[in-house]
Structure formats: structure tokens, C-alpha cells
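Dear colleagues,

As part of the handover before I leave the project, I'm documenting each prediction I ran so the next person doesn't have to rerun anything. This entry is a single chain, and its sequence is reproduced below.
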Amino acid sequence: MSFTDSTDSGSDRPMSVLWGCELSSARSSCTFRVTEDWSCEQQLVLRTACLGEAARDEFHVLEVVAEDGDSRAPVPLATLKPSVLPSASLAGVELTPPVTFHLRAGSGPLYVSGQHVSIMDLTSDEEEEEEEEAAEETPKKPTKGSGAQKGSTAKKRKREKEEEPNSLAPAAPPPAKGRGAGRGRKAAAKK
């Protein structure tokens, strides 16, 4: 079964496919590889390791061997036992292929699941050339005469701040109390 998820984020487009393998006494290792003709970044993002229902009540040790360079030391990922811990989350484990999984101890079945993520670069050569040309056409540093303009802008902002009314003080005096106050009429003269 395979599930594909893709999201478009600019020029890089990640694609993920559900991946899994079964390890048992009949097949104690599984290697995850990608073909060499893929010209994109590849990752195997692990999710879970769990025992099958037919697993015996014994310790099952899952280990991984990353085949990058000369260092091929096995690293234990999980130790499972049906009566104690039948499954383990492997969230946060991201491996670059090729990677080999081994069932170091136990008879299985032990299932490993994760996502095969490919990040494909969709930027074409034409788009790169257009971006370079646009970068070259942008104006360089401003001339020395524009410094005087910057100073006048700063003075203008300072004047605007001084002219702004204080937010704590009322903008206008409160209306006078009495007849006709607040309606836009002038107060009647006293005789």
C-alpha cells in the first residue's frame, strides 16, 4: 500500500510515500534504498516499530545500520516484548538512504513503518536566469545627495510626533453643562 502526500512550497515540492517492512526469523534484515537516477533529496522518516500478533513473549531488538561512508556500526532503535512494550514510537528519527534494518534478537514478526520523503527541486533553468537578471537590474546604493532627504524626513516625523495630542489628555474640553450644551448651539446671553 502506498500513500502519496504532496505540498507545494515555492520551488521545492516534498512528496511522501508510506513505507514499511516486516522482519522475522525468516527474513531478519531489510534495506531501504533509492535508485541512483533520482536527482532529489531523499529521507526515510520513521514512525513506529511494533510486534505482530504471532510474536513470542521474548525480547525483540531492532537495530539500524546507516550505510554512509566507512562507519557501519549498528544502532539499536527499539527493544520490544509483547507483554511489556508491544510497540514503540520512532518519531523524530530521520535517516538518509541507504539504510538497513536488522532484527538482532527475537523471532518476530516485527513491523517498521515510516514515510519515504522526496524533495524535488522544480526550479527550471529559465526561472533561475530570470531571478539573476532581476537582481542585477535593481538599483545599487542611493547617491550621497539623498542623505539630506533622509534628514528632512526624520525632522518631519519629529514634528508630527510633537503635534500629536497626548493620548491621556482629552482632545477637546468637555462640553459645558446646562441648557443647549453639546448640541452645537451657542449659550444664551444673561441679562
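The longest strand covers residues 12-23. The helical segments are 125-137, 146-163.

All the best with the project,
I.
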